[in-house]
Amino acid sequence: xxxxxxxxxxxxxxxxxxxxxxxxxxxxxxxxxxxxxxxxxxxxxxxxxxxxxxxxxxxxxxxxxxxxxxxxxxxxxxxxxxxxxxxxxxxxxxxxxxxxxxxxxxxxxxxxxxxxxxxxxxxxxxxxxxxxxxxxxxxxxxxxxxxxxxxxxxxxxxxxxxxxxxxxxxxxxxxxxxxxxxxxxxxxxxxxxxxxxxxxxxxxxxxxxxxxxxxxxxxxxxxxxxxxxxxxxxxxxxxxxxxxxxxxxxxxxxxxxxxxxxxxxxxxxxxxxxxxxxxx
Length: 280
Description:
alpha/beta
């Protein structure tokens, strides 16, 4: 049985947007991490700006510190990106954004691009939004296959979207897409909000569960550092290990309480997890 290891822990720059990207990379190294998930948004890396030179600099800065980029996650959960939008102009803009994101993955040398399914209006039939999402994702899959990039498709909470909220929804969409270029991602906050378990994801996806946003949380769905929420850390780790999970455990901390002093939540979460790993 594969054992979870501290080398699977992964820093993410979401809660560093009030600081320079160089500071983030230095802190990742100080926390003893070797993997990075890049959140693509201003001021660190924004696809709305000319981005080629920035991508190459990020790639070189990672190499200089001995860090590995495991996933590119362009901002997409807030305006104006939605591949399931009813309005054609929004859908087309969103698809161009993700196609450009795939090109950025090539320059960044990122094997994964995280995508979300978009959403439809809450007062309309979600089935139509599902169809629009599936059409857009199918296009992205074809381009990803040609480029050798894998899409990570992430369920969202009901407050965020009405297309893919559960592991069952995700499995259904992946079955429709029938592409080797799409894999599953688990977000512990979305999982708990849906009343699911890590076992549900591992049971449905097995080795096709390729990435985890591994955060503590609460009933409100906050993305917290470990020790600041109510999730059972040891249980989550034991379930991932027993299921043979081999991907990254990424720290997607979004709460504003971490914005001004971002190192402690990342460093302390890593330390807590290292301690629990020794007990497995």
